[in-house]
Amino acid sequence: MDTSLHIYNTLKRKKEVFEPINPPFVGIYVCGPTVYSDVHLGNSRTFISFDIIYRYLLHLGYKVRYVRNITDAGHLEGDRDEGDDKFAKKAKLEQLEPMEIVQKYTLGFHDVMGIFNTLSPSIEPTATGHISEQIEMIKEIISNGYAYENNGTVYFDVEKYSKDYQYGQLTNRKLEDLLEGTRELGGQDEKKGRLDFALWISAKPETIMKWPSPWGWGFPGWHIECSAMGKKYLGETFDIHGGGMDLQATHHTNEIAQSQACSNTAPVKYWMHTNMLTVNGARMSKSAGNGFLPHELFTGNHPLLERGYSPMVVRFFMAQSHYRSTLDFSNEALQAAEKGFQKLIKAGETLNKLGDSSESTVNIKELKNNCYKAMNDDFNTPILIAHLFEAVRIINSANDGKEKLNEQDLKDLKDLYKTFVFDVLGLKEDQAQGSEETGLTGDLIDLILNLRLDAKKNKDFATSDKIRDELTKKGVTIKDTKDGFEWEI
RNA sequence: GGUCGCGUGGCCGAGUGGCUAGGCAGCGGUCUGCAAAACCGUCUACGGCGGUUCGAAUCCGCCCGUGACCUCCA
Length: 489
Fold this sequence. Notes:
The protein is α/β, with parallel strands linked by helices. Helices cover 45% and strands 14% of the residues. Helix 1 links the parallel strand 3 (25-30) and strand 4 (63-68). The two termini are 47 Å apart. The protein binds one RNA strand through helix 1, helix 6, strand 9, helix 8 and strand 12.
């Protein structure tokens, strides 16, 4: 059986065996957020997906350099390559400095990533911190003849480039088709070709964020930052480049073009794209106005939500679908995920209390192999989770005395949980709302439940049920066991 | 209009040319004073019409529906 890791490569439109360029090192670049507004849940999905990919690569023993940029300049609205970028516009709106906008939403982004238990990237470079690298790259592209300057703005010459390379290879599009689908030029445009995009944009007198360049004061185009920073930290050709599927046709296509035009090498060996989060079948996006913010989800403070869901439930919910599939968002689906997540975590707690047996009625080795098989097949987390629920069944059955686990089984199961549930899927126990209770409250609940136990022994069920009902109303869940009770808030 | 996808049981969501993922919900049972939890069993689907095949939900064709991208968006 082939046990090597397979990755679906957008460039080839098929799964390929993953062979790093310089093993054991792996370079991975993921397009990070544009920090001019709060990240919504759809954005989060991409970063959670790549967090699991990063974690699995680490688990396999690769020395991974994970680069995820922060776009803090140069991102224009619309297709007009003029005027202020998103940060300056937002700054005017909120009456702040552009860099205050950047700071505010960068911190917010990191906060959300922390809440979702994602690992920090190895390097998190910013566009504004790499202006000179971008300028150098643009100069190189111009001298290679694939870009031209007009009134202080530099455009990438797509038609020229297409004579030597395949421009639309990532999305399998032909130049003629692309040209057909593009709208007419506005008239006062300075571009030669309608597909040409800006590498450097000349500043207007009122532009706030601008830098000096060989072409005068200006700011970089959006696509060049990722090419420049990927090259700087991971080399001219690196292993994996990831991002959302919406970036495929434009951003990543242009990244490839820039790198080819600059260095005459393909920048990336494996392109990976995560699919969109949808709401009622339509893509969640900023512009559509159907975005959920993470904190709205946690608190339930949103018109479409009946109540809140914890960050780990959301993470589990996302891991239950494959990263290349769309995932639809609904109360019902979240509730199902919540139940499943709790079952998984509770079984993990039960596992720690199990005693071993001299015999074994289960096959943990096979289970473990199945888990690896699932992850090796293009990070198939839903299949992994299906296998983990087999572990749940085994644990709970053993707890009921219906399966027998020997010492090795217990060790292997604990190891399985640590590896896949916690290290790879990146799940952790939710902070129960009541976990910060003082010991006194817990003692009091124990006291009350001990009184209830006495009532039960005396067959005074009216009293025992009353106590249970009242405590349930207060949010304390009671489970009777053979000779006692368990409770949680 | 062009490119690329998708259509799976009540819901979410994998996968596969024959061996009926998984979670949630439902139903029946075991356990329990009753619950809860847990376990066992049950329900067993692949848009429509053709074709290839011993055999297709899985491959091919057509049709219908739906989505993404082609314009900023993870």
